[in-house]
Please model this.
Amino acid sequence: MLAYNFEFKAMTTACQITLYETSASKANCIAQKIFDQTKAIEKKYNFHNEQSWLNTLINQRKKQSIKLDSQTAKILEKVHRLSGQVNGVFDITLGTYVYAAKQFQSLSKQQLKEKYQKVIGLENWNIQNNFIHFKHKDTKIDLGGVMKEVAVDMASELALNASGASLINFGGDMKINGRKPNGECFKVGIKNPLNTKQILLSLEVENLALTTSGHYARIQKLAGNEHSHILSSTLSNEKHEVLSSTLLAEDTLTAGLYSTSLLLDKHVQCPDNVKYLLIDNQKVMHRFGL
Model:
């Protein structure tokens, strides 16, 4: 059984697939299905494309209640539930700030907060009977912190059709099925957030998802200010205490949501069945279950 590797770009990140398969034709078939599925997710939920399904149906809505397809309803139900478990630290409605900053470029960061803070937060949206309900017309949702993880989980389901093990890695968000044919676990390196060319340690992963969130990864501009690509509800751009958080869980969406939340608040309580590693701005590692 051989390892077949595939690479493509989606959702602004490098996507890698490793399939252990008995034939190239079967591996190619599975990889093509993953590619097509991932591209469809990217197109549908792209917050930065005004013509995407997400923006035209939800963020440019005329009504406060929108009927969702079953796929989206299932995703958002889970996002709402997990967001509640982290006390709203993870918040898809922070897209409201980004959306407004693009529409009204003259607004300062303070003006954005004063105008839109009341429409942001978990209490301003909910899912019921496949409908998403909003309290305010100005609330927008950005699924950029969700859909890459969802895409990994969905790709992993397709990869289970491979004869052997598989690894799905979309920009560091990954799901691993099984072990290599020689019995070895897949090993994942954890980067030093202060020097991303340096690997601090390696983790052996089997039948789990692993995500790493880091303020060091990307920056964005908002109302003329530079911010981490991971926003907090206060729009703070102060020095961050936690520079990266790595979390292992049964699925990538859960891992990603909790790793992002821990990056914003290290006191977030995680379920007993997850493991995590935090690296602070002094390069001190804080472990739970690892």
Notes: The chain has three domains: 1-45+144-180, 53-134, 185-290. Residues 81 and 287 are 25 Å apart (CA to CA).
